[in-house]
Amino acid sequence: QVQLVESGGGSVQAGGSLRLSCAIAGYTYSRACMGWFRQVPGREREGVAGLYSGGGSTYYADSVKGRFTISRDNAKDTLSLQMNSLKVEDTAMYYCAMDPFPCRFNTPQEYPYQGRGTQVTVSS
User: Fold this and answer.
1) Which of 13, 88, 89, 94 has a CA 20 to 30 Å removed from the CA of 43?
2) What pLDDT sits at residue 73?
């Protein structure tokens, strides 16, 4: 059974940094589409960043380009999201998600496997 567990959320002041991690268990293949999305209550889910674990380009939402970096450690089966220069509007619940190869879905919020989320709160 595939399980994704996020960690690393917390409270930080605007301009600060956080690093989110997602531990992935129960998936034995190296190729998958992986990503992060976020949600604020009452608003639609927003895809934040994504990558293909078999190599290739990464994806970032315009709102986080230049500030967030997604990465994958295949040896440790973890997906990370380094978030720098955080803004108040980055406050949300952050979820990691995975779509096994051949990746049938376009955005992280559609991926079939999702974690339970970790809260990020940025204060001014």
Assistant:
1) 13
2) 85
* pLDDT 10s digits, 27-73: 877 789 999 999 999 999 999 999 988 777 899 999 999 999 999 98
| CA–CA distance, 86 with 122 (Å, rounded to integer) | 7
Structure tokens at 99: 């779509």
Secondary structure class of 123 (helix, strand, coil): strand
Query: Could you tell me which of 88, 109, 122, 103 has the C-alpha nearest to residue 39?
Result: 109
pLDDT for res 83: 98
The candidate with the shortest Cα–Cα distance to 36, out of 8, 60, 2, 62, is 60
Give the separation between CA 25 and CA 2, rounded to whole angstroms. 6
On the question of a cis peptide bond just before residue 108, with omega within 30 degrees of 0, the verdict is no
Q: What is the DSSP letter of 89?
A: G
